Amino acid sequence: MKRIFLVEDDQEIARNLIRLLSREGFAVTHAANQKETSVVLDEQRFDLALVDISLPDGNGFAVCTAIKDQQNVPVIFLTASSDETSVVMGLNMGADDYVTKPFRPRELVARINAALRKWACSPSVFNIGSLHIDIASGLVKKEGKEVFLSPLEYRLLLLFINNPQIIITRERLLDELWDAAGEFVNNNTLTVYIKRLREKIEQDPAKPQIILTVRGIGYRLGGNGDAAE
Prior knowledge:
Elements: E1 3-7, H1 11-23, E2 27-31, H2 34-43, E3 48-52, E4 54-55, E5 58-59, H3 60-70, E6 75-79, H4 84-92, E7 97-100, H5 105-121, E8 125-128, E9 131-134, E10 139-142, E11 145-146, H6 151-161, E12 168-169, H7 170-181, H8 187-201, E13 211-214, E14 218-221, E15 226-227
Parallel strand pairs: 1-2, 1-3, 3-6, 6-7
Antiparallel strand pairs: 4-5, 8-9, 8-15, 9-10, 10-11, 12-14, 13-14
Helix pairs in contact: 2-3, 6-7, 6-8
């Protein structure tokens, strides 16, 4: 049974969604605000999240970042706004899809199933040299020993893994870290994060082979970056 995390402050909408999704064979856990979300994510694992953008104590963008950092499952935004800026912002922050309220129940179920199918086809285990990353469990190992990364360090590593053939500019990395930290992040801070991550995952941080510097532009993933079979 697939487990869905529903983050929705409107109790009536939440009740209706829980009934709908339960009939479709999903197990649903509900949180009404951002504070409850943090507690639930620490206690349970999910296969997909439905997140309302407007919450009483925050917004769905911050919740999406927290979900991706901790569990990295597909996220579908529920929004009362079809405003293009909100939609683009949500997708750029890692959301997999969005549904505008009021939505048709069958369409929502179809989008959930499509996101789950797409996610199931995506590799969840990667090997780069002696580094092993299991996205499903959030586990990182170097030479068989677990490596403990901070949420920002892990998010940074996932960004490189998910873009193996792309040079990622410093501007894009700054945007990603801003979203995750919720505070000002500058070029010096980014350099510190890259340095800390290299110290944990590289064999020789002074001669990095996993996160390579592209002078004047940004960074790119080195090694083979192979998805494990």
